[in-house]
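Support request, please re-run this one:
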Amino acid sequence: MAADARYEILDGLRGVAALGVLIFHLSIVGAPYTFPRGYLAVDFFFVLSGFVIAHSYTSRLDRLSLLAFFRIRARRIFPLSILGTLVGSSYFLFRLAIQPNSQYTAADVVAGTFFNLFLLPKPWVTAAPTDTIFPTNTPLWSLSFEMAVNLFWAALLYRFRTAFIGSIAVVTAVALAVLTVLHGSADLGATWPTFVGGLLRALFGFCAGMLIWRYRPQPGSLRLPPSFYIAVLLAVLCATPGGALVDVAIVTFVWPLLIYLAICGDGSVARPYLQVLGRISYPLYIVHVPLLLFTVGLLKAARLDQSVSYSIYMMIPICALVAAGLDRYYDQPIRKLLGQPHPSGFITRPSDG
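Re-run finished. Output below.
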């Protein structure tokens, strides 16, 4: 496979998956409950990350120290994760100022923010009914695991033979299946009681992505339009029948297969649209929960929270526009300042992070 092979369909799928997470969370602010399996988009991201990182850095790791690799990943991840943490924390502090009986104390918010700025989970449990390890911006839990697995890969995992990587994938898949059945779903990792499940999700997904890269097919060998892959992704996120075992099947079989098939596709015709979806995916994932929290607060202050229904779907284009603005006017300039050019898409050539 050529080193400059392009995977525009994967760019687009990443953006659609981020939109799926947003729609899943819209129920927080009164929207009808849709995308009931939106939480499984995180597992799609983990598999995709394994493929992207292996594709982008395997040939360079012998020339990169672990510290150098960490710096590259930090320049990619931290500018937006720090912003998302601060925006989320500002909401909770503002809420405390007008409503002292908030679910988190000021000490929890401030101390939790300190840890979360470094993508570290807060190392204590509170009495909050929705207590998470990233209390002011919950989705960051997955970035914490992703960074940890990235470093594990660069330090050791990439050296392992394919058979050993496959063994890790099998063991983590079995362990994840057990925890998923016990928990009732694969929605694991955001809290301390489900922390191990989140680690298994990240490790399995990354290993699956590595295996896909090692056995990657020729791009363009399957002439299916990008809309086919997007439709499959959306159908899975919308799926309601079944229970924990369906989650296991999606995580361990459907997502790896979808990504493998998408690699075979040719997205050149829809390249501009797919790249836009790819560019907004990360900022959208990072900032959508703080934006929804502020929306909740404003609706409650205006006493409109009981009347919200389908109109809340207006948050989809609003969040997408905010994400596009953050990509262009915040993330790109900061990465340029830090010496890391912003790629035209998430997965365009091995030099892209």
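Residues 8-337 form one domain. The mean pLDDT is 90.
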